[in-house]
Amino acid sequence: AEGAVAQEIVGIVADGGFRWMASDDQVLQRSLNAPYLPTRQKYQMYWAGEADKRVALIFRDHRLSDDIGFNFGKMNGVDAANSMMRSLYSIHKQVAEDDRTYVVPIILDGENAWEWYRNDAKEFFHSWYDQMSRAEFMETVTVGEYLEEHPPTETLPSLWAGSWISHDFSTWIGEPEENKAWDYLARVRSDLDEMVASGEHDPESLRASYDEMYAAEGSDWFWWY
After folding, report:
1. pLDDT in tens, 57-98
2. CA–CA separation, 77 vs 121, rounded Å?
3. How far apart are CA 7 and CA 24, in angstroms?
4. pTM, two decimal places
5. pLDDT tens profile 39-54
6. CB-based burial, 112-140: b 16+ in 10 Å, e otherwise
7. Which of 23, 39, 131, 206 could form a Cys-Cys staple with 3, CB 3.0–4.6 A?
8. Distance between CA atoms of 98 and 94, rounded to whole angstroms?
9. Which phi and psi (to 5°) does residue 189 adopt?
């Protein structure tokens, strides 16, 4: 949920066949144990894990992502697009002399921002996409495309455990009612495991039960508790 990652899940994600994960630049900063993030560290991909248990990590630009999510809806759409392009060009100027290629990830909730924009952000999108398509200093790519062309050259010493909200998990766990809900969920999982051990189940019911269990364990529901 919300770009939540941790070193402990890297091997599980790799075993699932995933090539990359995405989180937040505040998570990257703490993974590197750095007082601040220089541009050249911020806008690249990293490996987490080792050998066949590694996954590529990309970290969103927190400020630019939040500009779209929370700030640009208060502006004229063209002005907002111009502001974004100025920010991207400023990043480009800082690394323009380098031989390597950098990536600026912009990641936010897919559904929440647009109700705050006039006309569902169409003016902002049309202006921004038009300017990006004509800009010679940048190219738009998917994460997979970037990874294919520019695989990471550095491995994180340890991936910080947190999300893009305050670089921790406090939105989902820590308060008494949330903790109680996790305790209940753990009890249900224990009951399910005991049922499996007993052999008193049929395969179809077991698959359905685990589908429900995984959905609950991976759910954003605790955010709304």
Report:
1. 999 999 999 999 999 999 999 999 999 999 999 999 999 999
2. 7
3. 14
4. 0.90
5. 999 999 999 999 999 9
6. ebbeebeeebebbbebbeebeeeeeeeee
7. 23
8. 9
9. -65, -40
- Owner of token pair 């920010």: 87
d(CA 111, CA 17): 27
Cβ pair 135, 92 in contact under 8 A: no
C-alpha–C-alpha distance, residues 108 and 201, integer Å = 41
* Residue 6 neighbours by CB distance under 10 Å: 16
DSSP string, 142-195: -HHHHHHHS--S-B-SS---B-TTTTSSTTTSSSHHHHHHHHHHHHHHHHHHHH
Distances (CA, A) of 42 to 38, 48, 50: 6, 15, 21
DSSP type of residue 5: B
| Structure token pair of residue 198 | 């007993």
